[in-house]
Batch of 3 targets.
Target 1
Amino acid sequence: MITVRRKSRRGQTKRRRRRRRKKKKKKEEVVKEKEEEDEEKKKKEEEKGGREEGEEEERGGEEEGDEEEEEEREKKKKKKKKKKEEEEEEEEEELPTTSEKYGCAERIRRESIFLDTAAI
């Protein structure tokens, strides 16, 4: 009986695993951010409940809170932009497959041979 040796796909599986890990991390980060936002909302709602009792005294505090909320939103937007830029850079950094590498070279070689034979 003849045994056939399989080609290893180590590089491909490495890339797959790396992508899976990245996706997992991103999902975990999103879940953590959502949980933090939910906690902040709950705290704000609790504070609002306390404000109803002494609204006149804390009106100045509400304005400061609004400014803080806007700053937090801006920070979150900046973080999201940075993440998107990093993802785009990572996608650009991915190495081309062998067919992409050599496919272009093969096509150029064929065209040059065709042009050489046409010139003769």
Target 2
Amino acid sequence: MGFWAPTGYAAGMFIVYAAGFASLAQLLVIAFAGVSIYGAYTAVNHGWVRRPAGWSISAVFLVVWIYVSSRGGWFMNTTEVQRAGSWSFPVYFAAMTAALLAFVLALRVVSTPAGRRHLDAGVWLIATLLATLLVSYYGEFGPLDEPPLADSWDLPVVIALALASYVWAVRSGFHTEQLDAALADSEFAVDPAAPTRTPAHRATPVAAVHEQDVHS
């Protein structure tokens, strides 16, 4: 898995986390509203979901998401203080999670096997962003006067979250047509007709002897 890739990923996640809870909450409201575009356009355009089902599920989710976001009291709030009369954070977070979970499950039911594969491969990102928002609320950059994760206790939590997210993301990845097309045009392209040779530093003794016999 290497060292620098997960390290850079963890550093990037900490930058997102350090932006502060109020900024992160507003960002995620917009970002998660965008999943309705996936259901109504991307999945439909690729043939993974039938248009009526994709549009209906996405429309219902978007209406629910707007309501949940308005009741949360953080969206479009420049004061970085929750609006009076809004839901408490546990209720708001639970409603966000439930809405996203319902959307993913409903879309998964009506998707083709290929659509379900793509949908499952992106769940890690939704879970990571929700977990980051949760840690942000109870951490040093959150709105609480005495956060449970003060005195830099949030740092190891964010690092652990980032590493778990990185492993999940890597294991969720798979070759897509777009990736194969991009690789075909890059320096990593491999000619299927070309003979495959084992590098000398990776050749087993049997492979090495066989190659010497061929060239002798």
Target 3
Amino acid sequence: MKAWLQLLKLRITVASTFTTIVGYVLARGQFDWPLLPVTLGILLQACGSAALNQVQDARVDALMARTAGRPIPSGRVSRRGAAVFATLLLAVGTALLWSVSTSAALLGLGAAAIYNLVYTPLKRVTPFAALPGALIGALPPAMGWTAAGGYLQDPSIHLVAFFFFLWQIPHFWLLLLFYGQDYRDGGMPSLLDRFDRGQVLRLTFLWIAAVCAAALLLPLTSLFERPLLAYVLAGAGALVVARAVALLRLTAPGVAEAAAPFRRACRLRFMEINTFALLVCVLLVTDALMVAGR
């Protein structure tokens, strides 16, 4: 059972589902019973797509220390069995979501298509696969929004989706910096093959700053009506950018990529940008519930 659960990449799929809930509450202004099938349907779709990704990546995963213990390369689950399992999850999730919102179901299938048919094969041939891959993180809030009856033409949800699109890039690049040797062992093209480490660190810092700047656009929409929450958002963003300056100090020639200080700094920035994204979600939901309850 544990091996089958590991196919689902639950940390990623649950996080994706959480942003869907955020989009739903932003449009509806409350937690209600229709949210349950929406959440379950999107979670099953995401889990199916994640399991299918492990089927696709099985040979590469076997070459990397970080992923060699996954269910398929370790031999605990067959590729055929995992493929059937993934297809079943996708089908059930889509059917459940379709019963509530056709638009959300189609967006979910679109996210799966981008992940499995675009991003997964593309990451084997170009180090810039994270850019189209970031669309995957932008779609779940829109899925929740439309499932709750929101209009996809609304610029407010566009800004939320844009924030999560930007957030995906430093999220991935910090992983790349932390697990650089693993990606080389797997034969995966890397930004470190195109740019030197200092350039990648500076690019990552700029993307982190862009993520925090994009978050500051959210209070300009109808999504933020409580000034105090907007101030919290601005303060947190400023803190994340200030701490990300540490990445620029890692460009010094004497700082080795495999050294503990380098890896620790990358890991901390990874945790901080993810915590900031979580804070944005919490503030958005809090504001929506406060406005609906007044």
